[in-house]
Design brief:
The complex is a heterodimer of chains A (370) and B (406). Chain A has eleven helices and ten strands. Chain A is an alpha+beta fold. In chain A, the strands form three sheets. A four-stranded mixed beta sheet of chain A has the order 1-4-5-8. In chain A, strands 2-3-7-6 form a four-stranded antiparallel beta sheet, with no helix packed on it. Chain A has a two-stranded antiparallel ribbon with strand order 9-10. In chain B, strand 2 and strand 3 form a beta hairpin. About 2% of the residues of chain B have low confidence. Classes of the chains: A alpha+beta (370), B alpha+beta (406). At the A-B interface, helix 7, strand 10, helix 8, helix 9 and helix 11 of A face helix 7, helix 8, helix 9 and helix 11 of B. The structure holds flavin-adenine dinucleotide.
Chain lengths: 370, 406
Amino acid sequence: MNFDFSDDQKLLQKTARDFLEERSPLAVNRNVLESDLHYDADLWSAAAEMGWQGATIPEEYGGAGFGYLELVLIAEEVGRSLAPIPFDSSVYLATEAILLAGNPEQKKNRLSALAAGEAIGTLALAEGRGEVHPNNIETRFEGGKLTGTKLAVANGNTASFAIVAAKAGDGVALALVDLSADGVTRSPVDSIDPTRSIANIEFKNTPAEPLGDAGQGWEVLQRVLDRGAIMLAFEQLGGASHVLELTKDFTMGRYAFGRPIASFQAIKHRLADLYAAVELAKSNCFYGAWALSTDSDELGIAACNARVSASTAFDLGAVEMIQMYGGVGYTWEYDCHLFYRRAKHDSVVLGSPAEWREKLVQRLVAKNAA
Amino acid sequence: MDFNDTPEEAEFRAEARTFLDKHVRPLKPGETAGGVLERDDPEIVKQAKEWQACKKDNGWACLTWPKEFGGRAVASNLNVVWNQEEGKYATAANIFGIGIGMLGPTIMAHGTDAQKSQHLERMARGDDVWCQLFSEPSAGSDLAGLRTSAVKDGDDWLLNGQKIWTTGAQFSEWGMIVTRTDPNVAKHAGLTYFIVDMKSPGIEIRPIKQINGDSGFNEVFFSDTRVPDSNRVDAVGNGWAVALTTLMNERSSIGAGGGGMRAEDLIRLAQDCTLNGRPAIEDSAVRQKIANFYVNASGLKYTGYRTLTALSRGTTPGPESSIGKMVGAPMAQELGSFATELMGITGSQISGPQETYLGSPGLRIAGGTDEILRNILAERVLRLPPEPRMDKKVAFREIPTAPPGK
Ligand SMILES: Cc1cc2nc3c(=O)[nH]c(=O)nc-3n(C[C@H](O)[C@H](O)[C@H](O)COP(=O)(O)OP(=O)(O)OC[C@H]3O[C@@H](n4cnc5c(N)ncnc54)[C@H](O)[C@@H]3O)c2cc1C
């Protein structure tokens, strides 16, 4: 049994943490939040120089060719520091989609730009409130032209290209589209976490190319989302662990009724529960990392476990953090809201935990029947 | 990352299976392993002892114990491999957990050479069953508040008082007891730890019926019960330190108490039950609930893998291993409760889920309540400040035990 990361992998993680502690303290996140920047471009290029964006991209396409076990540990640190870079949509989703379904030409054109941080990719999925389902996709992709409107596209303000789920004939296809192309209108909308800026994007007869085989779009999308869910779960895990540490330290230093508030059982027990939630998430994330790195049959179930568990831990942490900080926790000046924003954004950006619970049961029922 | 056995683990697993195949049969589908003894049935006690002796004679008992005490000194990861394999077979009840898991290590750490040679080998072989006489009617979570007294009388000690919730006392040969030897000093300082022969005159054992109808535990009364001084474990007044050794071993041996039912069983049940004219598994509230159980149960399972990895490498598992019972026991209760409700009117008939429902409250109390486990986690793992204490520096006899005027 060896259910842990190797020493080399942990060293890489430590390097990532040190780097982000220096280059991306929470002040950097706040700076992006309070301006119209959408992300920190310097940090983004520095990350690319270290090979983060290209972690899983083969070297022939300009990637660093590390591997998934390395990437998830970087993700954990990105999540821990709330780094304001569009890592999620670009690295976990767009890159993954092209790796999984791209033709040689697409790989050649897109992957090196992604690895170098010159391109930012995203997925454009939602068209209305609630889950994304083949039945509620109306955007059409026909004759190389894309028409329709996508909502709350992650990093929609900054992405250079999008992978769009659209109807082609009766099925769902994925269309790869440059966001600088004709017939694209982006409208920025307010994001719950402005360091993950979002936009509604309208396509009107926009030229686009198919990604992957026609008719396979939905399946490919599910695979991309499963893989992305595991990577994002590590970000959530990093965020949740950081929240636990900060909240613990705060409650030790804050005195009330002549005692540190951390000595009150009502506080202690909730921190113990948060600790348990973080550890459960960590274990489920580890399992996800294993499934991802081995492309296991368990990947679908592991992705649901990791996503639900990590969302639960980060959401719980963010909620409890503000409560345990008291009044200052509800101020703009304190950092609690940075976590509170990111936690909720992360919970919904790949579909809500409720959707992933539903997916989990579908998969378990299928597995039991097999 | 790799879930496969190391070559050493694989070899040990194969060896274990060979032994098990020779002596016991694999479980049939739906059958559960021997588990713990709840009723005072001499035939079950006899079978349990025979199976333990068979394991001992073939080198499969007390695997982690040092060889000099009848163990095999294998690393903890191999012990886990053994437990996994033994759990797949229809073995006899295990009535040796408290002794081998908790009291044996206490004797090794604090006992005299004479105590070690008198007891450990017999304990390992299952010749003697042991019980833990700690809790009292007024001292459970606050264990150090116990009142059973031990007073020196020549070379003996005279014990008087009452213990309660003593699992297995009815068929135990020996017990380990914490007593108060000095009520005039602070609470933790006045305690002394003994080994007691359960057949001694002056001991009366009365079974207590649990909420599930079983009688696993007992009240034990001591009236002028003689215990020779040679049965004292460690120094007079040092009982608390010895008791802590027992408790540490207790918390590491009580794992994630699943309480029988698993999330997968719940799926099958939900396919069988109907809600709103459809199989309940199609109901989305039911599905959401099942998913949560599965995610948390998986988290516990993989936390166990992390612990096992640390053990495989010969390092100490991290603090994450302490969440098992704290998360697992309430989850078993919720699972039993939810599954019972899913069954509608027939939910009131005892089958699997009802047993989980009736048994799980005990899991949340035995070996430290949910609240005490949270205190321990908060103080030892998260290093939060300890509870302020009203009783620490006061002589034991002056500590209030009830509302004023009662
Ligand atoms: C199935 C079973 C088997 C057992 N087997 C044995 C055995 O073999 N040997 C043995 O010695 N004992 C045994 N016990 C006893 C067990 O260890 C105690 O029941 C347990 O420690 C709780 O003590 P109590 O029952 O006195 O409850 P109390 O300590 O009175 O607790 C009552 C409630 O108060 C809460 N509480 C108490 N102190 C605190 C605190 N500081 N902060 C917050 N909440 C607190 C508890 O969490 C609980 O909810 C067994 C119990 C059970 C249920």
